[in-house]
Amino acid sequence: MNTFLLRDVVNADSSASISDYGAHVLTWTPAGQPPVIWRPAAVQLREGTAIRGGVPIIFPWFNTGWDGGRPVSKQPKHGFGRVSFWAFDETAVTDRHVRYTLDSTDFGDDLLAQLNSGDHPRFHATYDVEIGERIAMTLTVTNDGDEPLTYEAALHTYLHVGDVERIAVHGLESCDYLDNTQPGVPHCSATGEPITFDGMVDRTYLRGDEADTPITIEDPVLGRTIEIINAGAPQAVVWNPGQAAGDAMGDLAVGEWRGFVCVEAVARLDRSVTLAPGQTNTLSQTLSVR
């Protein structure tokens, strides 16, 4: 049986807590600030179960996957990356950096067969976390096989806010989006307005040329602005369950939905990543606060 090990990284600028299970960043707290990365008061650590909060690594499929232009039914939901123990690289650790690795040889053929990548998909993934005045999280995947490798990926970041119904998310005003709360997931035109929250919001923003534009969260309750810079992410998912769904979630306490918003770096659906043999791709997210 694997052991749940939480690693604390502390320096003069900030602190973070990271679990080997899922290579999961649980918290990040800049010096003199409330936490920026959110976790619930009671975190469930159970093998085979995803950790709520923090920064789950979604890989190698999002939700239950996508194939041939239609949703499919891959399991586990959101891939096996977030419910696997990653290898901690002892040679790369400092008080500002940690590295984890994950290899296809760690998994059985039944899981790998769900990848849209030929008969014998092979890959290795590296996850680097830089911790200082900002936190930078970088997922790098290399195709070690002889056939193209196609996968979906996301950094599903939970960000701590004073009250989600009082924040505004800027930087996605000019982007069309898919409304995941509606039947058929309709394609919606850009609103030209910042995102605000009154009930459930679950949208996949199609960023295009705006993919490197910073996203900001204006938080009048905590009196700060969180800046999010995604790279290698053609989409951004913005999610909060709202009161009805949030209070019904078994791994959240009543009212905890109000204290977070998810702003995710995403490559999924028709913007999934396809790597030729030997090719590498990087998806990253950097957070800072002012």
UniProtKB/TrEMBL annotation:
Its EC number is 5.1.3.15. Keywords: Isomerase. The keyword Isomerase applies. It catalyses: alpha-D-glucose 6-phosphate = beta-D-glucose 6-phosphate. It holds the Pfam family Aldose_epim. One of its GO terms (molecular function) is carbohydrate binding. It comes from the Bacteria. GO terms for biological process: carbohydrate metabolic process. The keyword Isomerase applies. The active site is at 156, 264. PANTHER family: APOSPORY-ASSOCIATED PROTEIN C-RELATED, GLUCOSE-6-PHOSPHATE 1-EPIMERASE. Belongs to the glucose-6-phosphate 1-epimerase family. This is Putative glucose-6-phosphate 1-epimerase. The lineage of its organism: Bacteria, Bacillati, Actinomycetota, Actinomycetes, Bifidobacteriales.
